[in-house]
Design a protein that fits this description.
- The protein is of the alpha/beta class.
- The chain folds into two domains: 6-106 and 253-285, 3-Layer(aba) Sandwich (Rossmann fold), CATH 3.40.50.10860; 109-249, Rossmann fold (3-Layer(aba) Sandwich).
- It is 34% helix and 19% strand.
- It has helices at residues 20-31, 47-54, 83-88, 108-118, 135-146, 161-172, 235-242, 251-266, 272-285, and strands at 6-12, 35-41, 61-66, 80-81, 93-96, 102-105, 127-131, 153-157, 180-182, 196-199, 223-226, 246-249.
- The strands form two sheets. A six-stranded mixed β-sheet has the order 2-1-3-5-6-4. The protein has a six-stranded parallel β-sheet with strand order 9-8-7-10-11-12, with helices on both faces.
- Strand 11, helix 7 and strand 12 form a beta-alpha-beta unit.
- Helix 1 runs antiparallel to helix 9, helix 4 crosses helix 8 and helix 8 (251-266) crosses helix 9.
- It is globular and about 55 Å long.
- The chain starts with 5 loop residues before the first strand and ends with a helix.
């Protein structure tokens, strides 16, 4: 990270809502590193040329995050996948070495686990319901099937059922997915019996988005975790809160995966003071 022109950033489409620049630029500033973190809104047809340019010696880019909808699609451009990314087959953190080799990591999975640990949620023997079957659902699902404190059951619902099928078949080639049951309706998630409901869909980003879950499904023994962090409280979380359920948005997951991303790029452990600056930067943005 000595290069005075070092550039880092996030690729996806859209990316304008991302809080990652606030977090990472706060860290660069605190560490007095001459580097910047930028937004790279890329259309699908631009991916090939973007990754081709990344390989060029003159490229100033040494690290990237990957967001929707490219976490799975970028895998084909990666030279080396970390063992976890290899199991999940989704990448949200990329390191480009000085030799321009591209290494892919998944920090979504450990970032999610770190936040749930902070929330004091123990997965052992719990019943879990998941909404969505995209890149984030893939990472969370894989992790839940790999951890020693295995849940009792996981039910997953996606409006396009075929996508869930493809996801489970693919993960099933590398991970024991026997506790996972795809369901064809929200009712079949049995949220009223679940300990944890995770929303990995983009439903809730917009004010007029409907909630997939009916108010009467929520209960006080449920933790509702919405990966959306902006708005701070989606319709889903507001409804759950009114019914006495515990709620959390995805800001903690964003923070923890961001810490891990930065540490991969810098190849060093960040101290608590820097971590606090990173967390403050994003928390201020969603008040």
């Amino acid at each position: 990270m000595e290069d005075s022109q070092a550039t880092y950033g996030i690729i996806g489409y859209p990316v304008s809502h991302s809080l990652s620049p606030l977090m990472h630029n706060a860290a660069f500033k605190a560490l007095k590193v001459d580097a910047s973190y930028k937004l790279f809104p890329l259309r699908e047809e631009e991916l090939d040329s973007f990754f081709a340019k990344l390989k060029e010696k003159a490229s100033p880019i040494f690290g990237l995050n990957v967001t929707v909808p490219y976490k799975e699609r970028v895998v084909k451009y990666i030279d080396n996948l970390s063992p976890l990314a290899q199991k999940i087959m989704a990448v949200n953190t990329i390191v480009i070495t000085p030799e321009r080799s591209i290494i892919g990591y998944n920090t979504d999975a450990p970032g999610f686990m770190a936040h749930l640990t902070e929330l004091k949620f123990n997965f052992a023997d719990k019943r879990i319901a998941i909404l969505g079957a995209g890149g984030s659902a893939r990472a969370i699902l894989a992790t839940l099937c790999l951890i020693p404190e295995r849940p009792q059951s996981i039910k997953i619902y996606n409006r396009t059922g075929s996508r869930t099928e493809v996801l489970l078949n693919d993960l099933g080639e590398r991970i024991d997915m026997s506790m996972v049951e795809p369901v064809s309706s929200v009712e079949d998630l049995n949220v009223e019996l679940a300990d944890l409901l995770i929303n990995t869909t983009s439903l809730g980003l917009k004010d007029d988005d409907d909630s997939l879950i009916e108010a009467e499904m929520f209960h006080p023994d449920l933790l509702v975790y919405d990966l959306i962090y902006n708005p701070k409280e989606t319709k889903l979380l507001k409804m759950a809160k009114r019914k006495g359920a515990k709620v959390a948005n995805g800001l903690g997951m964003l923070y923890y995966q961001g810490i891990l991303s930065f540490q991969h790029w810098a190849n060093m452990e960040l101290d608590q003071k820097i971590k606090k600056k990173m967390r403050d930067a994003i928390e201020k943005a969603v008040i």
